[in-house]
Here is the input.
Amino acid sequence: MNEPVSVEGSELSRMTLVEHLEELRKCVIKSLLAVAATFAVCWFFVEPLAEFLAQPIYAVVPGKKLAFLGITDPFIMYVKIAALAALFLASPIVLYQVWRFVAPGLYRRERLYAIPFVVFGSLFFTGGGAFAYYVAFPFAVEFLVKMGAAFDPVITVDRYFRFLMVVVLGLGLMFELPLVIFFLAQIGVVTPAFLMRNFRWAVLLIFVAAALITPTPDVVNLCLFALPTIALYLLGVGAAALVGRKKS
Here is the structure.
């Protein structure tokens, strides 16, 4: 049984480890159900979605079609595409479940941030995916294809969409950085001074993460992934400063 603990005029819920795990299980199940429901909807539009997501490679290699080597490759490709679209559509519900899981550990005044957390989290995640698809991914595709200009390209659906999902999901998650920083500042884990004092380490970690996502070894592509994330980090520092000023 949860017992409210009064701290600074607010109430915190005291939960046992088993209760935390049970709450986590419920949140995970509800998130999976939301993704499954949107997956069923996206499956009806999977062929137009596949055509849309293939445009970056068709723009670089006109007249070519993506190939497949295994008989099950097209089906697996459609499943991945529908799952990717479903994850973006269900992101508000997934973020809300994340908030529900952490909310019991927050003060009452901090729980009022549920709607901004879900709204801005969804916007940042979708914005990161859009930046990946319209800017970073086409640039990387063009660079890679031109490197093999002396050869006849045979691009398989499996490798192309695997590459696409890594870039889109990776940048979608990296664009959540301002929201994560704001949340950590709100609960007192970080401060603007701490963030700026460790800025060089943050830049190093961002470039390491960008190198893991970036499929090419060139500096231009690396910066194309890392520099927007650094800007988002600074945006998060600004959000943390607003939190500190409000608390003062």
